[in-house]
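Exercise (ungraded).
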Amino acid sequence: MLEVKEITCVFGGLIALDKVSFAIRQGEITGVIGPNGAGKTTLFNIVSGIYSRTSGQILFNGRDISGLPPDQLARLGLVRTFQNIELFGQMTVLENVMVGLHTKSHCGILACALKLPWHLAEEKRIRSRALELLDYVGIAELAEQSAASLPFGKGRLLEIARALALEPQIMLMDEPAAGLNSRETWELGELIRKIRDLGVTVVLVEHDMELVMDVCDAIVVLNLGQKLAEGTPRQIQDNSAVIAAYLGEG
Amino acid sequence: MQRELLKFALFAALVLVAAPLYFQGGYILNVLVFVGINTMLAIGLNLLLGFAGQISLGQAAFYGLGAYISAILTTTHGFNPWLAMIFAALAVGALAFVIGFPILKLKGHYLAMATLGFGIIVYIVINEYVDLTGGPSGFPGIPNLSIGSISFDSDMKNYYLIWVATLGVMLLAINLTRSRIGRALRAIHDSEVAAQVLGINARLLKVQIFACSAMISSLAGSLYAHYITFVSPSTFGFHFSVELLTMVVIGGLGSIYGSFLGAALITLLPEFLRAFHDYDIIFYGALLMIMTIFLPGGLIQGGTLVWNYLRNTLGGKGGADA
Amino acid sequence: MNLSDQLLQYILSGLSTGAIYALIGLGFAIIYNSTGIINFAQGEFVMFGGMLGVYFFHKQGLALPIAFLLAVVVTALCGVLFERFAIRPLRRPTPMNMVIITIGGSIFLRGVAMIAWGKDTHVLPTFSGDEPISFAGATLLPQHLWIFAITILLIIGTKLFFSHTISGKAMSACAVNRRAAGLVGIDVRRMIMFSFILSSAIGAMAGIIIAPLTMTSYDVGVMLGLKGFCAAIIGGMSSGLPTVIGGLLLGVLESLGAGFSSGYKDAVAFVILLLILFFRPQGLFSRGSSERV
C-alpha cells in the first residue's frame, strides 16, 4: 500500500538516503531498523512530508504522494508519531486528542464563534470520541490533566491516541519505545498489535530489537543511507550482512 | 461552559450598567470608550499573537484602513455608515487574506519586520494620498452613526454602542478560542509540525485568523471614525501598533479577559500619569521588557498566581485551626 | 543642470545615505549572527550616537573628535547594559519574546533620549567645513567624503576583525553554530556581549556622521533602524559585503525614488523589504543556503 521508490536525499554534500526502495503491505507491521545514522528518521520525515526529497517517488495506494505537505498526507490517511513526543503542552490530555479529530470535524470560524447548534453537536461528538480513544489506549482517567504534566510513557500513549483519532490507513511510529521501561515497552507491543488488528498498517522505526522481532511481520534494514536487507524477522536475524553492519557499528 | 457564560455575563453587566452611572458622563467616559475600542483591537491582535503565536506589528494599519474607508465612503460618497462599516471590514479582511499568504510564510523576527513594513507603507499612503484622505491634516466631518432617529452623538451613547460591539467581539472570540479552531490555533502555536501532521492546514488557518484579526481592527477603526468624527494619520502609526502589542503582552497572551485588562491599563494609565506626560513611553518600554522577562503570562497570570497563593495560605490556616 | 548631472547628483547623495544604511545593517547582522536576535533597538543606538555627539559637542563644549569618541563609547556602554539587563535575563528566549523585549528596549531608549534632550531637532557641525566640491557636474559636501571614508574604514575594520582576531573568529564560529562553539570552549555569552558592543558602536558612528547632514532628534532611530534592517535583508543578513551593497542599493533607489515623488520616498525601503522577504528571504546575492559573516 505504501511504496518507496528510489528515494534519495542529499543534505549539502551528505547523502542521507541513497536510492532506497521498498514496499509495505497492507495490514502488516513493518519495522525499519538500522544503526545510528542509517537514515531511518530522514526516511520517515520524507515519507511524512516534513523534509523534501532530492529524487525518487512515494506511492500511497498507487497514488504519487511525494512532495505533498504533511497536512494533506494526514487527510489522505497517513499519520506519524515523533521520537521525542510532540504533545501540545498548553492543553489538557483530552484537548490533545480533540486536536487530532480536527479533520473529523468541519465547523468554520463563523460557526465556532457564533456557537451555532451544529457546532455544539459536533463539539459534543468530538469530545466523546476523544474519550473513547483515550480509553482505547488506557489513559482515560488522565483526560483533564495538562499534557505537559504526563510522564513520558503516558505521553507516548497520548500521542498514539491522538494519531489514531485521524482514523489513519497507515501509521508511522518513530522510535515509539524510546524512553519506555520494559513493562511499558511490552504494553506498547500489545497496543501496536491491537492497532494493526483495527486494520491500520503500522511502520516502526525502532532500536529495541526485542520489540521489533516480537511484533513486526516484515523488516527493512537500512545502513549508511542504503537498503541493506528486507524480509521476515527470522530472515533478518540470519542475514550475515545485517549482523556485520550491527557488529561493525558496535 | 456554564461558569464561563456566567463570568462573561457578570463582566458585561458591570461594564454596561455600573461604569457610566458611576462616572456621570464627562471626560472619563470618553476614556472608557477608548478602553472599549482598544479592548477590541487587543483581542484582534491576541487571537493572532496569543493563540496562533504569530506576531503582527501592522495592526494599526488595519485599524486605520477601517477608519478611513468608513470616513471616505460616508462623507465623500454618502454611503450609509453601517453599510460602509461592513464594506470596510470585508475589504480589509480580504486585503489581509491576500497579503497573509506571503507574510505568514515568514516566522518570528521576519514576520515582525514584514508586518511592520506593511504597516508603515499603509501609513505613508494615508499620509500622501491627500486627494482621498486629506493627508496629514486629517479628514473632518464624518457623520455619527445612527439607528432610526437615535444618533450616537454623545459620549454616553457611544459608550453603550462601542461597548456592546466590544462585548460582542469578546464573546465571539471566547467562543472561537474554545472551539476546534481555537484548539488548532494553540496546536500551531505549540508545534506547527505536530499540528500539520494531524491534518491541520496551518498555513490557511493562520491566514484566516490574520484576516479575522484585521476585520476586528477595521471594525474598531470604523467605530472610532464615527465616534470622533475626525481621523488623521498620526493615530494609526507604528507607535500605535506597539501600544497594542504592549496591551496584549501586559494583559496576558492568550487570554481574552487579559486583553481587556491590558487595554484598560494602557488606556487609563496616561490619564492618571498626566503630570508625567512625557514619561509614558519610557514606562511602556520598561513595562514591555519587565513583563516579558518576569511575568510572560501577563497580568492574568500574575492575578491567578496571587489568587492561588492567597487561597492556599488562607486555606492552609483554616485547616490548621480546625 | 541637465538630466545626467541630476541623475549623478541623486546617485551620489543616495550612496552617502546608503553608506549609513549599510553601517546600521551591519549592526543588525552582527547581532543576528551571534545570537539569532533581530535587535529592534538597533536604530536607537544610531540615534543615541548622534544625540550624544550633539550633547558632548554643544552642551559640554568638547572638541568634535573627542565628542565623537565619547559618544561612541557611551553608546557601546548602553549596548552592554541592554544586553546584560534586557536580553540575558530571559529564561526561555523565543523569537517572539525577543521581538517584544527589543521593541520594549527601543521605546525605552527613545523615551530616555526624549527626556534627556527634549523633542527638538539638533544639528552637529560638519567635520570640515561646508565648502561644496564639484564632481563631474554634481556637487558634494566634504561631509559626504567623511561618510564614505569612515564607512569604508569601518567595513575593512570589521572584515579584519572577523578574519584575523581570535574574538572575531570566535564570533564567526558562534554564527555558524552556537552550540558547537560553546562545546569547543568559546565563551558564547561573552561573544554575544561583544556583538552588542560592536554593533552599538558601529551604529553610534553611523548616527554621528550623518547628523551634520540630516539633523537628529530623539525619534530618528525608528526609520534609520528599519532601513538599516532592509539593507541587511537585501544582503541576506551577512555581516560583510552583501549587506554593504544592500545599503548602498537601498540608498540609491530611495534617492531616485525621491526624484519622482518625495512623499513616497520612505515607502521605497519598505516595498523592497516586503519584496525581498516574500521572494528572496535568503537575500539578493546568495544562492540557496545563506552565507553569514
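Further reading is listed at the end of the chapter. For now, observe: Residues 2-243+254-280 of chain B form a domain with the ABC transporter involved in vitamin B12 uptake, BtuC fold (CATH 1.10.3470). Chain B has 14 helices and two strands.
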